[in-house]
Specification:
heterodimer; A: mainly alpha; two-stranded antiparallel ribbon; 2 strands; about 0% strand; globular; B: four-stranded antiparallel β-sheet; 10 helices
C-alpha cells in the first residue's frame, strides 16, 4: 500500500510540474487532439477519392481507424513517454531513477506521464461511437466483449512495442528514432484495412509482428465479414493473446536491458 | 562481536566493451576494465575518501555499490544486501548524491520535492519533519525552500540534494563529487555539514572528489584508485610517509646564500628573490635542529614550515 501511495505521489508531482506552466499545458493539450484527428482525417480523405478501398467502405474504414486510435491513444498516454528513456540514459537521469526504492519502469512512466495527451482517448472513443452508428453491427454478447477488449488488447500491444523500442537505448545509447518506425509506423499500419498493403511487407507487419490483430481482424469480427485474406473468423478474437505474447517479450527484454545498462561517465 | 562491515567488495570487476575505429568502416570490439579487481571493506561510521584521476573507475564503483550497474565479476555487498538483485530494498538504506545528477524535481519547489521523497522512501511524518528541520538549520535552506529547483543556484541546489539524500536517515551516504562547481562559501558549508554528519558515527560516508581539500577536511581514510585498481588504502599521513612527501622549510634571508651551500638534514630545492628566499625539504620529522643549523650558517629574517601538499603526492602517484 505504502508503495502504491509512493507511485501516486510521483504522479501528483508530475501533475504539479506540468501545471506550473499553465498556459503552455493548455495549448499542448488542445493541439495534441490534432494528432489523432489527423489520422481520422487521412482516412476520410482517401475515401473521398474512391468509394471503397481494398473492398472496404467508408464506414468500415472509420471503424478500423477508430479502434486503432483508441488503442494507440491509450498506450501512448500510459507508456508512450518511455521512449524518452534514451534521453534519460544519455543525461544520466536513469542513475537517479535507479537509486530510488521503486521500480524503474513505474517511475519512468509516472515521472513523465504525458498528461497533455489525455484528451486523445476521449476523441478516439467519440470516433468509435460514430463508427458503430454508421456500421451495421449485429450485437451478440461475444461482440460486446470484443468491443471492450479490442482497444485494451491493442493498447497492451502498442505499449509493448513502445517498451521494446525504448529498450534499445540500454544497448545502444544513440538509438535515435529507430523505435519510432515500429511505434508510429505500426499505428499508421493499423489505421487501414490490412488488404491495402501487399507482399512481404503485409506478411511481416500484419502477421509476423502482429499489427493485423490490433484493429483489422477485430473489426472483421464485429462486422461479421469474412477476411478477404483468408484468416479464419476466430482470428478477430485472438488480439488479447497476441498482446500478451508481446507484453511477455517486452517485459523480458526490459529486464535484460536494465541489467545491461551501462550508465554514462561520472 | 557484531560485524561492523557495511560495504564489502571482493575481486570486483566491471568491463565495458567499446568499439574502436580500425580502418575506414571496420570497428574493432575491445574490452576495457573500468574496475579491475577491487577488494575493499568499509566499516560502519567510517569516512572514506575515494579518489583517482578521471576515468579511474570511481563512479563506476559507486554505481555498482548502489545497484545502478551490474558487476562483470566479483562480489559486492552493501548493508548485507546484494545491490543489483535487491536494489529497491537497499535503496531505502542508502543516500546518494551524484554531483552532476539531480534527485530533485526541476519544476517543483524544494519543499515539495522533499515531500515527495518522504512518500517514496515511506518515512514517518514525524521523523521526516525532524530531519528536515535539522538540515534546514545546518544547511541554511530557509531562504529558498519555496523556490522551484530550476531557479536555484548550484550551491543552493547542492544543499537541497544533500538534504534529499538524508531525509530517510540512510546508513550509508555515497557522494559523487559533492563540491564540484561550487563557490568557496558553498564548499565550506557542504564540508562542515558533512563533517558534522560524520562526527555522529552513525552514518558511513564514501565520497569521490577531485577536490583534495574535501578529503583533508573530512576523511580519515583515503582510497586511491588508478586504472581500476586500488593503489593506496590508508590514512593521509600513511600516504605521505609512503610516498616520501617532506615538510618544507622556507627561509627569508638578509643576504643570499653562498654558492654550493649545504644544510645537514635537508636538501635545498629552490632559491628565489636573488637568493634571498631559500626552500629546503626536511629529510626527517624533526625540524628544530635543522632550523638551528640554518640560523648558525646564515642570517635568517623569517622562517616558515609548509605541510606537504596532498595534491602533489597524488599527482606523483598518478604519474607513476
Amino acid at each position: 500500500m505504502a508503495e502504491l501511495r509512493a507511485y501516486a505521489m510521483l504522479l501528483g508531482g508530475q501533475w504539479r510540474s506540468v501545471t506550473s506552466y499553465r498556459a503552455s499545458f493548455a495549448v499542448e493539450m488542445i493541439t495534441n487532439i490534432g494528432g489523432t484527428a489527423l489520422d481520422v482525417l487521412a482516412v476520410l480523405v482517401i475515401f473521398q477519392a474512391t468509394t471503397n478501398v481494398a473492398g472496404f467502405s467508408l464506414p468500415e474504414g472509420v471503424l478500423i481507424v477508430s479502434l486503432s486510435s483508441c488503442a494507440f491513444a491509450l498506450a501512448d498516454f500510459a507508456v508512450g513517454n518511455i521512449d524518452r528513456l534514451k534521453t534519460y540514459v544519455r543525461t544520466g537521469t536513469m542513475d537517479a531513477v535507479l537509486v530510488r526504492p521503486l521500480s524503474a519502469f513505474g517511475q519512468l512512466i509516472l515521472m513523465d506521464l504525458p498528461l497533455r495527451k489525455a484528451l486523445r482517448l476521449p476523441f478516439g472513443m467519440a470516433v468509435l461511437a460514430v463508427a458503430l452508428r454508421i456500421n451495421h453491427v449485429e450485437w451478440t454478447p461475444a461482440r460486446v466483449v470484443l468491443l471492450v477488449v479490442t482497444p485494451l488488447a491493442g493498447a497492451v500491444f502498442f505499449a509493448s512495442i513502445f517498451v521494446l523500442s525504448a529498450s534499445l537505448a540500454f544497448w545502444w545509447v544513440d538509438s535515435g528514432e529507430v523505435g519510432s518506425a515500429f511505434t508510429y509506423g505500426g499505428r499508421d499500419f493499423t489505421a487501414y484495412p490490412t488488404p491495402v498493403y501487399s507482399g512481404w511487407f503485409r506478411v511481416v507487419f500484419a502477421y509476423g509482428l502482429g499489427f493485423g490483430f490490433v484493429a483489422y481482424q477485430p473489426a472483421l469480427a464485429l462486422l461479421g465479414r469474412a477476411d478477404p485474406l483468408g484468416m479464419p473468423a476466430w482470428a478477430g478474437f485472438a488480439s488479447p493473446l497476441v498482446a500478451l505474447l508481446a507484453a511477455g517479450l517486452a517485459a523480458a527484454v526490459w529486464r535484460t536491458g536494465i541489467r545491461h545498462y551501462r550508465s554514462t561517465g561520472s | 562481536m557484531r560485524d561492523r562491515t557495511v560495504i564489502e567488495m571482493r575481486a570486483l570487476r566491471k568491463d565495458f566493451t567499446v568499439r574502436v575505429k580500425a580502418g575506414r568502416l571496420r570497428r574493432e570490439k575491445r574490452t576495457v576494465a573500468a574496475v579491475d579487481g577491487i577488494d575493499l571493506r568499509i566499516e560502519r561510521g567510517e569516512l572514506v575518501g575515494y579518489i583517482g584521476p578521471n576515468g579511474a573507475g570511481k563512479s563506476t564503483t559507486l554505481k555498482m555499490l548502489t545497484g545502478v550497474l551490474t558487476p562483470s565479476a566479483g562480489d559486492v555487498s552493501v548493508c548485507g544486501l546484494r545491490p543489483v538483485p535487491q536494489r529497491t530494498r537497499l535503496a531505502l538504506r542508502l543516500g546518494v548524491v551524484f554531483g552532476q545528477r539531480s534527485q530533485l524535481w526541476w519544476d517543483l519547489p524544494l519543499r515539495e520535492s522533499f515531500g515527495l521523497l518522504q512518500h517514496i522512501y515511506r518515512v514517518p511524518a514525524a521523523e521526516h519533519a525532524a530531519r528536515l528541520r535539522r538540515c534546514v538549520a545546518l544547511l541554511d535552506l530557509d531562504g529558498f525552500l519555496d523556490t522551484p529547483v530550476r531557479q536555484l543556484s548550484l550551491g543552493q541546489r547542492m544543499r537541497g540534494e544533500l538534504t534529499a539524500a538524508l531525509l530517510h536517515g540512510p546508513e550509508v551516504l555515497f557522494l559523487d563529487e559533492p563540491t564540484i562547481g561550487l563557490d568557496v562559501v558553498s564548499k565550506q558549508a557542504v564540508r562542515s555539514f558533512l563533517a558534522e554528519l560524520g562526527a555522529t558515527g552513525d552514518v558511513t560516508l564514501v565520497l569521490t572528489t577531485h577536490d583534495l581539500a574535501d578529503i583533508e577536511r573530512l576523511c580519515g581514510r583515503l582510497v586511491v584508485i588508478d586504472h581500476g585498481r586500488v593503489v593506496h588504502d590508508g590514512t593521509i599521513e600513511a600516504l605521505h610517509a609512503r610516498y616520501g612527501s617532506r615538510r618544507r622549510l622556507v627561509a627569508d634571508l638578509d643576504a643570499p646564500l653562498p654558492p654550493g651551500f649545504e644544510l645537514d638534514g635537508a636538501t635545498l630545492v629552490s632559491l628565489e628573490a636573488d637568493g634571498h628566499r631559500a626552500s629546503f625539504d626536511l629529510l626527517s620529522d624533526v625540524a628544530g635542529p635543522v632550523v638551528g643549523r640554518l640560523s648558525a650558517l646564515a642570517s635568517v629574517r623569517d622562517l616558515s614550515l609548509v605541510e606537504p601538499d596532498i595534491e602533489d603526492v597524488v599527482a606523483r602517484l598518478y604519474a607513476s
